[in-house]
Amino acid sequence: MDLTAVSTVRKIIHVDMDAFYASVEQRDNPELRGKPLAVGGAAARGVVAAASYEAREFGVRSAMSSVTAARKCPDLIFVKPRFDVYRAVSQQIRDIFAEYTPLIEPLSLDEAYLDVTENLKGMSIATEIALEIRAKIKAVTGLNASAGISYNKFLAKMASDLNKPNGQAVITPKNGPAFVEQLAVKKFHGVGPATAEKMLRLGIETGADLRAKSLQFLVEHFGKSGPYFYGIARGIDERQVQPDRVRKSVGAEDTFAVDISDLDLATNELRPLAEKVWSHCQAKGFSGKTVTVKIKYSDFTQATRSRTTALPYAGVGDILAAANALLAGVYPFKLPVRLLGVTLSSLTNDKEAAENEEQPQLGLGF
Prior knowledge:
By secondary structure, the chain is of the alpha+beta class.
C-alpha cells in the first residue's frame, strides 16, 4: 500500500441523518417537536438509543442509561423505539442514494458512504451532489441530513460532523493532512476510548503526534491497525466504498430488570438471545464459526469469552451449547450480572459452508 500519495482522487460522500430515531418520532408526533426527547426505555435499566438535539443540550447521549439521562434532563420525554418505521425510512433514503451511484456502503440505518467519482447523474462536483441528496431526503422524508465530502472515507466521515445538524463540509486533498494534524486523536473515527487512552500514554495526543511515529512503532503498539493509523495521520485512507460489505457479526443482548448471581438463571437468559441470533442468520442464509458471550457486571465492567470451531455452527442448539459452556467458564461471577449478550462471528454463507464440507478431509486415523 502506498502511504505517501493518493493515486486517484476519489469523491466520497458520507451522509449521516441528524438524530435519526428521535427526528422520526418528532416528525410523526408534532407534540414532541422542540422538546427534549429520548428514544429508549424509561425503566431503571433502560438505555437511550437516540436523543434529540434539545436533549443533547442537557448532556443526554445515546448509550447513556435512562436514569442518568433523566437526572441530566428532568423534563426528558421517553419514547419506545419503532424499528420497523426506522427501517422503512432508511430504505427511502437508500433509494435516493441509488439515484446517484450504485457504490453505496451502509454503515447503519442512518448513515452511509457513497462513491460519486463516477455517478449516474454525470455531475462533476461532489458538493452539489451532496446538496441535492440532502434536499431530496428532506422532501421525501421530512428529515434533515448532514454530509461530509472528501477524497477518502476517513475524512468524509470526519467532515460530516463539522457542520451538524443539517449542514455539510468539505475536506480537500490540499487541506486533508493539515486538518488531521490539528485534530485530537480521541476525535478520530475508529479510535475508541481505550485506544485513545493508550495513544495518550505513548505521547500521542494529536494527529501531528501520530504522524511523528514510525510505521514500525505503530505496528509494534497497535498491531494490524498500525498501517491504518500511519495512513490517516497523513490524510490517506485507501479503503474502497464497498456496496457488498460483508457483515462481520450478528449479536443480541439483554439488560435484566434485576441483577443475576445464579448460574442457572443466567443460563436460561442465553436461550432467547441464541434464538434471535440464529433466526437472523437463517433469514440471511449464513452461519458463523465463532460464538462470543458478553457479560456486563453490576459495576458496568464487562468480560467476553469466545469459542471458534473449524466448521460453521449448524443450528441454534450448537450455538446455545457453546454459549452455556462459555458462561459456565466465568462462574462464580465476580459480581452480579446486569447484561448478557451472544454474538456469532466469522460469518460464512450457506454456499461457502457447503463447499467447505465437500473438501476432502485430512486423514486423522478416525
